[in-house]
Amino acid sequence: MRKLVLASASPRRAELLRQLGLSFLVSASGIAEENEESDPAILVKLLAISKAKAVAKNFADCVIIAADTVVCLNGTLLGKPRDAADAGRMLTSLSGRRHEVLTGIAVLRQPDGLLCCHVEKTAVTMREISQAEIAWYLASGESYDKAGGYGIQGRAAMFVEKLEGCYFNVVGLPLSALSKLLTLVGVRIWEGAESNDNTAPDHQGFATK
Question: Any idea where the domains of the chain sit in the sequence?
């Protein structure tokens, strides 16, 4: 199998890749997760592509996996909180409401530059969260490196009332979608080898460039 590189310093994304039994290198892109694009789906896709291309400069023969996740509440984007007060505001705004989590994934194959992209959306409904619960959660330290100020895989699981879509997307890397993108660039996880026959199936909704 061609060498895999995760263009992210996120320990959660690394753990999810290991869950699939994959071996990979980690190389953070250093790309600022900021963009003037207001459409969340376009934003996460562009940022994922930028991260993949930034890391690709350092690897001549590999497959690069990059992702970016945002929380969207009624058209307002919630990224990673700046501080505890910002995280508290985010959690207060999410309390008792439904929001969307969007993750853009880019898989880039070197050296030919084949790029496959996808945006996954999951709807999350939070129950009413008291200010005491928010203070307790902020004290745990889980908020600070997570879009929307919460991690569904941690203590914030107790706030989630309903989930519509991929759970792993909310964690930060939708594994089903990723496996399809890897197949498109010739990496078949279940075979433990790279395909060179260019007969990978065309998965509807998954863009190839």
Answer: 4-208
The enclosing H or E element of 104 equals: strand 98-109
Say what the alpha-carbon torsion angle 77, 206, 209, 175 is, to the nearest 10 degrees: 70
- Write out the DSSP string of 154-167: TGGGGGEEEEES-H
Q: Which fold has domain 4-208?
A: Maf protein (3.90.950)
Give the list of residues 6+ apart from residue 110 with CB closer than 8 angstroms, or none.
Answer: 56, 59, 60, 61, 62, 63, 64
DSSP 19-82: HTT---EE------S--S---HHHHHHHHHHHHHHHHHTT-SS-EEEEEEEEEEETTEEE-S-S
pLDDT in tens, 25-83: 999 888 776 666 678 999 999 999 999 999 999 998 999 999 999 999 998 999 889 99
Give the containing element (helix H, strand E) for 170: helix 167-171
Distance, in Å, from the CA atom of 128 to the CA atom of 201, rounded to the nearest integer, reads 44
Picking from 134, 133, 36, 130, the residue whose alpha carbon sits closest to that of residue 81 is: 134
- Catalytically active residues are 68
- Cα–Cα distance between 90 and 69 in angstroms, integer? 15
Q: Are 163 and 156 in contact (CB under 8 A)?
A: no
The two structure tokens encoding residue 88 = 């508290």
In whole angstroms, give the CA distance from residue 107 to residue 79: 22
55-58's contacts with Cβ under 8 Å and 24+ in sequence apart are: 55/5, 55/7, 55/27, 55/29, 56/108, 56/110, 58/27
